[in-house]
Amino acid sequence: FSVDGYPITFAALMIIASLTSMTTTHLKEKNRILNEQEKLLMEAEKETMRANLLRAVSHDLRTPLTAIIGLASTYLENGTYMKEAERTELVSNIREDANWLLNMVENLLSVTRIHVGDARVAKSMEPLEEVVSEAVLRLKKRLPGARITVHVPDEFLMVPMDAMLIEQLIMNLLENAVYHSGTDEPIELNVEKRKNSVA
Predict the structure, then answer these.
(1) Which residues, in sequence order, are CB contacts of 198 under 8 Å at separation 6+?
(2) Is residue 185 predicted with pLDDT exceeding 70?
(3) Interval 74-130: pLDDT, tens
(4) Across residues 144-163, what is the average pLDDT?
(5) Of 117, 118, 135, which Cα lies nearest the Cα of 126?
(6) Which of 27, 34, 44, 55 is such that its CA lies 20 to 30 A from the CA of 137?
């Protein structure tokens, strides 16, 4: 302090140190607030995802359950008046829908595990035309009045996929198109081969 200029330098350094400390404290507080907001946002997104998943599950499971209940009721109410072949067909349809429902539940559980990072989609090579055809047939059982025109490539395509999930996806898209298109025209389902994918 006895040397000329040192008190001014000391004062300047004190001011700079104080400003730096205040800025650092402010930035730390700001980061803490941002981290808390980010956590809250992630929790809100998780809740939204859970709600959407529950809605999807209830929608996807209600239809086959309704079909099973309807077929079982038909069998119980009219079974004694039906031919053996008709009864066998009814029971076969119940079993088919029950198996499809079981596979659907297993896939939904797999998707749930994927969201928390515990699993991956099990893909296998599937014939594309069969998956599309099965999806359309199932939709027509659900919505007999639906008119759907399907265009698939002439080439036989084997595509890596989870057939059940893709089938459900196609059904959901077609059902939404039927309900929300606002027209009585047939719904068109176009499948085309691209360079390294199918769309």
Answers:
(1) 128, 157, 159, 191, 192
(2) yes
(3) 888 888 888 888 888 888 888 888 887 887 777 676 666 555 555 566 788 888 889
(4) 86
(5) 135
(6) 55
pLDDT at position 111: 63
Helix axes 163-180, 84-115, angle to 10 degrees: 100
**pTM of the full predicted structure?**
0.53
Residues constituting the chain:
199
Cα 59 from Cα 71, distance rounded (Å) = 19
Per residue, what are the HEC states of the chain?
CCCCCHHHHHHHHHHHHHHHHHHHHHHHHHHHHHHHHHHHHHHHHHHHHHHHHHHHHHHHHHHHHHHHHHHHHHHHHHHHHCCHHHHHHHHHHHHHHHHHHHHHHHHHHHHHHHHCCCCCCCCEEEEHHHHHHHHHHHHHHHCCCCCEEEECCCCCCEEEECHHHHHHHHHHHHHHHHHHCCCCCCEEEECCECCCCEC
